[in-house]
Fold this sequence. Notes:
The structure holds 2 protein chains of 2 kinds. Chain A is α+β, with helices and mostly antiparallel strands.
Amino acid sequence: MSKTIVGVTGINASDNPAPGIGVAKSLKRDDANVTVIGLAYDAMEPGIYLDWFIDKSYMIPYPTAGDRVLVDRLLYIRSQTGMSVVIPTLDSELPFYIRVADELRSHGLHTFLPDEKQFRLRDKQRLEKVAASAQIRFPKQYVINSTIALAHIAPELGYPLMIKGGVYSAHRAEDLQEAMAHFSLVVAKWGYPVIAQQVIVGEEMNVIGVGDGYGDAPGLVAIKKMSTTGFGKIWTGVTVDHPQLLEAAKRFVRNTRWRGAFELECIIYGDDIYLIEVNPRFPAWVYFATGVGINLPAMLVKRALGESIDEDIGYDPGKLYVRYTDERVCDMRTFQNMVTLGES
Amino acid sequence: MNAQGHSRLARLAINNEGFAFDPQTGESFTVNETGREILNQMVSGQPMEVVSMSISDGYAIEHREVMSDVRDFFEQLRVLGLVEATS
């Protein structure tokens, strides 16, 4: 049987970690012989230096460099390594990979991604549509393009409220002044539009899985965040068995025929489930699912290669997830190679 | 006197050290030995009166005093949303 060689992006494991390391760890746990290729945008991305998860790393251009440049780079990496699957893990790069998926496949480089229509559902402005597909509630929200509009709708949403960027960033505001400040910050960093969203009080729970593209999700894991970082990223969490939430996730996958990785961010208040956000990718804590027996990245790779996967695997509630910081000391050569050769 | 809406209480996983975990919400609580005994009896469907009698007998404490403590404990469970109401 030939060795699987998988490229993974988002290997920046900083205080706001990307999902790539979790994906790489999961793949190694599934198959110690898998080769993981780190696809980095910066020579300082920590994953480059974690050679027990990432076997070899290459610099790749940002998607803004243009489709051709990035496709050529990926095909070069394939020619050098035999990479047969690539897992993009960052929101901003997904449109590119979706656009060029057919071309990559024609060269033997496989992905397993939502199509463009499905991808648009992750748009925060389409939250209502996704919530309807899962038959759950969603918070009241407005898409705004000015502070005047913000001042107009804020009283209706009430305080606190959330100010969110179209793709990234979410800030809680306790009053209009704070909301205005967050609005300016989001626009400066991520541009328009901005979403002002009602805050739903309750327990935050998230579900992750992989949709098979035909309406099934062979593995789902629901968790509750017990503590978060200043960026709102999980630091400790626990698996939960919330039947209504898991059913909602199944309805989402069934009704959208979701293909690929996803995360549903929800707030639970009593018997009500509110959908806060949809992410068309794995979260940075994806290894949590792997640790409780649901290896979603491994499933995704199998699906990308057209292999079958086991259905409906369960997991135990009450499993704890704890993040920690670590250090790595290594030779300067890896950094030098990434800067000068673009690979190491 | 009775406890209504025990469905959430019934699903608690309570270990011997008094650590109680709700697998649906992910919430966890700790109780002392007496609290664990009360919780276990309530989970098995015993009404508050029977629970307090059992504790009174087991610890040789006057029933009226125990009943008051059990009622307070029940009120805490209600605040935490583990039981729905007292009557």
